[in-house]
């Protein structure tokens, strides 16, 4: 668990981060979003002490990070940045092995970890271990950069605009890769982005910053239905809010229990998003559809009115 308590950074008379407090639960992804100059990257770098706080504390599992030398702290926290930061003169395997070698891991352990990470990211070790960064695509470089950050099996991964340099299609794939890796290793991730769509796609919780202040920190659906102020409402996209919310909710969340009435057409899976369920209702031109669970077991019905009620800001 990462706990930020009144974390503040000042440069002279300028306050870049202003008394930010938040908790990142173990095994979750928290995303910090805001425009340029909002203080989000400085906040991230105070966690691994690349930037020293002016006041306030950061604790990890109850231990103040200030109690440990900065270089030792950073060896136990993964860090991935925009542009990958790969060493051009080192192979993929050597890049991933950078910190394990500094820590004196045995060669066999390093080789096994490199192979495990390459396979986890869909990069065949036999094909990619010996390549150099310039021989990789942008998406492959990004995956190697994240693999390097995870090399020492850290419990925490900090990511600063990690996908910002990728084109939209590769970016979406990189985001899905990250979700798969996070589920596999259970890593606690704090990610900084200026892209609200990315925040909603990745975040278990989202922190919105502006002018160094934390305006709101909560689950994606909370930001959509109960934005803290007009700025948060604008950032989350007021015109798209209902559709964003529907994409976060499942058909099973709005099912009306009971057997579907005779003649109820079609069916949607309970795990389908309400946005997809709405598309199915509109495509069929009906006002209700059956909802099924495991083994196609009927759970009830989903009505057009029920879907629209769920998508309406409250």
Quickly describe the structure.
With 314 residues, this protein is α/β, with parallel strands linked by helices. It is built from 14 helices and 14 strands. Helix 12 (241-248) crosses helix 14.
Give the helix/strand layout.
Blueprint: E1 2-11, E2 14-24, E3 29-33, H1 40-47, E4 55-60, E5 63-64, H2 70-75, E6 77-81, H3 92-96, H4 98-102, H5 107-120, H6 125-128, H7 138-149, E7 156-160, H8 168-185, E8 188-193, H9 196-202, E9 205-210, E10 213-218, H10 220-225, H11 230-236, H12 241-248, E11 256-257, E12 267-269, H13 274-284, E13 288-292, E14 298-303, H14 304-311
Parallel strand pairs: 3-8, 3-9, 6-7, 7-8, 12-13
Antiparallel strand pairs: 1-2, 1-4, 4-5, 9-10, 11-14, 13-14
Helix pairs in contact: 7-8, 12-14
User: Strand order, biggest sheet?
Assistant: 6-7-8-3-9-10
Considering DSSP H and I runs of 4 or more, what fraction of the residues is helical? 25-40%
Share of β-strand residues: 15-25%
Give the distance, in angstroms, between the N- and C-terminal Cα atoms: 31 Å
Shape: globular
Q: SSE order, as H and E?
A: EEEHEEHEHHHHHEHEHEEHHHEEHEEH
The radius of gyration computed from the alpha-carbon positions, rounded to a whole number of angstroms, is 22 Å
Number of strands: 14
Residue windows where pLDDT falls under 50 for at least 5 positions: none
Secondary-structure class: alpha/beta
Number of helices: 14
> What does the largest sheet look like?
6 strands, mixed
State mean pLDDT (0 to 100 scale): 88
């Amino acid at each position: 668990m990462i706990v930020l308590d009144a974390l503040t950074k000042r440069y002279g008379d300028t306050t870049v981060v202003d008394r930010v407090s938040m908790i990142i639960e173990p095994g979750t992804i928290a995303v910090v979003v805001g425009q340029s100059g909002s203080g989000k990257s400085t906040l991230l770098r105070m966690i691994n002490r690349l930037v020293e706080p002016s006041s306030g504390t950061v604790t990890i599992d109850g231990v103040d990070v200030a109690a440990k030398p900065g270089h030792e702290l950073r060896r136990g926290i993964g860090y991935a940045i925009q542009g990958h930061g790969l060493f051009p003169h080192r192979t993929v395997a050597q890049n991933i092995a950078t910190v394990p070698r500094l820590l004196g891991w045995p060669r066999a352990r390093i080789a096994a970890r490199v192979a495990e990470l390459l396979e986890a990211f869909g990069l065949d070790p036999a094909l990619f271990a010996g390549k150099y960064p310039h021989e990789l695509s942008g998406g492959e470089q990004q995956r190697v950069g994240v693999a390097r950050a995870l090399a020492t099996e850290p419990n925490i991964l900090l990511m600063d605009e990690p996908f910002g340099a990728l084109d939209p299609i590769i970016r979406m794939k990189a985001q899905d890769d990250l979700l798969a890796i996070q589920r596999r290793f259970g890593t606690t991730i704090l990610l900084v982005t200026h892209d609200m769509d990315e925040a909603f796609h990745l975040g278990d919780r989202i922190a919105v910053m502006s002018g160094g202040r934390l305006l709101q920190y909560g689950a994606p659906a909370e930001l959509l239905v109960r934005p803290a102020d007009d700025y948060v409402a604008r950032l989350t996209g007021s015109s798209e809010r209902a559709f964003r919310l529907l994409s976060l909710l499942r058909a099973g969340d709005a099912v009306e229990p009971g057997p579907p009435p005779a003649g109820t057409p079609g069916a949607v899976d309970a795990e389908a998003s309400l946005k997809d369920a709405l598309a199915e209702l509109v495509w069929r031109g009906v006002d209700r559809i059956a909802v099924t669970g495991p083994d196609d077991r009927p759970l009830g019905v989903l009505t057009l009115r029920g879907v629209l009620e769920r998508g309406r800001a409250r």
